[in-house]
Amino acid sequence: MSNKNKQSRQRLSRGWKSTVKALCIVMPGLLVNTPTVFADGTEILEPTSEVLADGTRFIGAGVGLSLGQPGDIEITIPAGASVEQVLIYWDGADRNFGESAPVIGVTEDTIQVDGNDVVGKFIGGRTFNPATQLFTFRADITSLGLVSPGANLLSVEGLDFGTESVETGAGVLVIVDEGMSSPLALFDGNDYAYHACTEDGNCSVTVLRTFAFPASDSARDGDLTMFFTSVAGEASGGDLRPSLVEIAVDGEPPIEIVNQLNSVDGEEWDTVNVQFEVPAGAERVDVQAFSEDPELTGDDPASFKWLTAALSVSDRPGGEGCTPGYWKQEHHFADWTAPYAPDDLFATYFEDAFADRTLLEVLKKGGGGLDALGRHTVAALLNSASGEVSYDLTPQEVIDAFNAVYPGSKGDYESLKNEFEEFNEQGCPLNNSDGSNNGDSSSNAPTVTFTTEATIPPVSMDNQTGGGGMFGAWEILALLAIGWRARRRTVRHS
Length: 494
Hints:
single chain, 6 helices, 20 strands, 9-stranded antiparallel β-sheet, alpha+beta
């Protein structure tokens, strides 16, 4: 490992402190003091120039194309979510581009996505060796309507970067709305790293990226999506080559994703989706990728390109609910959320437990057993569908739970009724014209004030080009990364 790389790793190990500043995005995407560069990010990931839609989080998927085209990107969008924006990235290299430095002259490229011509903007690349040229492009394909809730398959072809080119792959980054607005921020570009690179002072290590956001009194969920290319495959030497990605929250020892960039989406493309807890009080997250051999395997560390880092910070749903007594009142019908309406048949959404009864009629049923379960099921459905109620379940979870116990025993009905009842009586945040929650009984929890969108004050952003720190202020309690092994590493000083 070069001395420069060692020094960068030491900075990370020692509480993510550095005398060199790191570029910071102030969420939900407010960018200031960004210098002019060749594109969105050449040899660095920069705050994206794309105007991002509002939404809850990013979902990413990709496909490696180095062995042939077309290739299919498979991406699943949760039922009930709405697709707000779809960005597509593609990447490659030409190993015989000539003696000139073409980065400045490249502006766009055209590929085909499901038979549609898509023109992308050049957002990063570099020239070195001196003839090898790297290319990364981005386009907004939202208007094509190719991605919707459920399973999606996008066919990609038409990548061609020259006479001795490698078309590494493509990926889509989707902003979805799942009923709440969250801070969203995106770095993109082309940051190349190889531990033995000596072409310039930046190519042996990536630039640390930092997301900053206001603290919250409650824990939140962080979702991070990254694209990497050129890590493993025939074009990269065949076998697995070591790599390391570190994610740190508020200066805590970072989580490590070790040797997991291995063409998981097909040769030469990796999509990294990481979910973790953002503790109360957290204000920043740092991330950096390394070309090194953390487990000392003796293998040559990977040379790779880092294309995206997309982060969302979402409030956790739950803690609120309105009772059947609230939802059955005519002056509260305006609070019902489409597609659900008082005159809809119960059987439209659930197993037909109440023949020819509407949702409102089931809400009004008295008694215990199945009738009690029915009215709390309808209340749970309406709570889960409301954008103004922070409920613990989604509409599909409510539907699946009822259908799982019906037909069943009285004990099954009572058990599920109790669960729904507990959620429904947590406290109703909706405005009641009569000042009450109209609950089933006087034991209903008090009304809780609820704000669906928090005001996020702007914070200044410094642009920085060293191995500084990207994420900080969160303690990460859980890491789920598409079957990846992650470990919290011991702090190292060498």
